[in-house]
Design brief:
With about 350 residues, the protein is of the alpha+beta class. The protein folds into two domains: about 150 residues, Conserved hypothetical protein from pyrococcus furiosus pfu- 392566-001, ParB domain; about 100 residues, no CATH class. A four-stranded mixed beta sheet has the order 1-4-2-3, with helices on both faces. Helix 7 crosses helix 9. It starts with 7 loop residues before the first strand and ends in an 8-residue tail after the last helix.
């Protein structure tokens, strides 16, 4: 029996002790066929409850077990859920007095329940694959991410549309993504606070997306500026051939074209003022170039075309040599911190 995740404990629970809230679906389908299948092969996939015995997933299986007059059923106890989701799922009266959810709170509960439903669906699929198939027991399992999203949205809000909830959660993610520039995160946080007060979702998403595009364009401009400094950084009063000879002698022989640094490294005629100015410009460009590190290499790597892949290799190799030369010239000249 496959445990959905580390947040689950396997146990048995008395049927009469399981709390079924009003948000569980009422369309049970062919319950007789499901009950017959469970009677023949057992309940291959336990139902899912909270640690307070509130039903989360498996309403049809629970009703089939009741029809079979079982006194208890196997359960997965899902730990680590928020109190708000547990209360939401335990509601029996549609008119129960409670504080209404704002749209950000609804989106958070939707995301939490969506994860539970997805975990349970995966476990049911594994149970069917490796533990046999109880036919009807698995026929009602969510078939894809869209089904899981619709079920979670309907459970939390009463409507199957999940787009608005997904967009709110995307903005919550942006506000906490430290790979993004601080102004973008701050804008997303401000938009989320406006959403708590009932502001429109679509305009907020448009503003955050525009801020991200602007940040990416700024980073690209900085990268292009940085790249241009590598094209020809040799002052007119320095002989390039002499400079390359000095660098190659340090590396024990002739460098390949991709290895040849073009920034003045061993050049003697660089004033302190010019060096400080160049260092400041370099620091600014480096901040922009570091934006590349926010991409997941495991995701990007397989999809890079050959030209981009070759450019990446040349850039990395050039940077390696750049770092070696900069390290050598930095020795004994690093300014002390103020």
């Amino acid at each position: 029996m496959n445990r959905p995740s580390d947040n689950y404990l396997h146990s048995k629970c008395a049927i009469h002790g399981i709390v079924v809230g009003r948000r569980q679906r009422k369309d049970l389908g062919d319950l007789d066929a499901l009950a017959a299948s469970i009677s023949e092969v057992g309940m291959l996939q336990p139902i899912t409850i909270t640690d307070g015995n509130v039903l989360l997933c498996g309403y049809r299986r629970l009703m089939a077990a009741r029809q079979l007059k079982w006194r208890s059923v196997p359960v997965w106890i899902r730990t680590g859920l928020s109190d708000r989701l547990t209360i939401l799922m335990a509601e029996r009266d549609e008119n129960a007095l409670r504080e209404p959810l704002n749209q950000v709170e609804a989106a958070a509960l939707y995301a939490e329940l969506k994860d539970v439903l997805a975990e349970e669906a995966r476990a049911r699929q594994e149970s069917s694959r490796f533990g046999g198939s109880d036919g009807a027991a698995h026929a009602a399992a969510p078939r894809g991410a869209g089904d899981v999203r619709r079920i979670a949205a309907r459970t939390v809000t009463g409507a199957a549309s999940y787009t608005r909830l997904e967009r709110i959660n995307w903005m919550l993610g942006v506000s906490k993504d430290f790979d993004l520039p601080k102004p973008v995160r701050e804008l997303a946080s401000a938009e989320v606070e406006e959403l708590r007060q009932g502001a429109g979702v679509a305009p907020a998403v448009d503003r955050v997306r525009a801020a991200i595009r602007q940040a990416e364009e700024d980073a690209e401009r900085k990268h292009q500026s940085w790249a241009s400094t590598l094209v020809d950084a040799t002052p007119p009063d320095v002989d390039e051939a002499e400079h390359l000879a000095l660098v190659e002698s340090d590396h024990g022989g002739r460098l390949e074209d991709a290895q040849r640094p073009t920034r003045a490294s061993h050049r003697p005629a660089v004033t302190a003022a010019r060096g400080r100015r160049s260092a400041l410009e370099f620091s600014s460009v480096l901040d922009g170039a570091s934006a590349i590190l926010r991409f997941d290499p495991a995701v990007v790597g397989p999809h890079l075309d050959e030209d981009t892949w070759a450019t990446l290799h040349r850039t990395v190799e050039s940077l390696r040599v750049f770092l070696e030369v900069a390290t050598e010239t930095r020795r004994g000249t690093v300014p002390k911190s103020a």
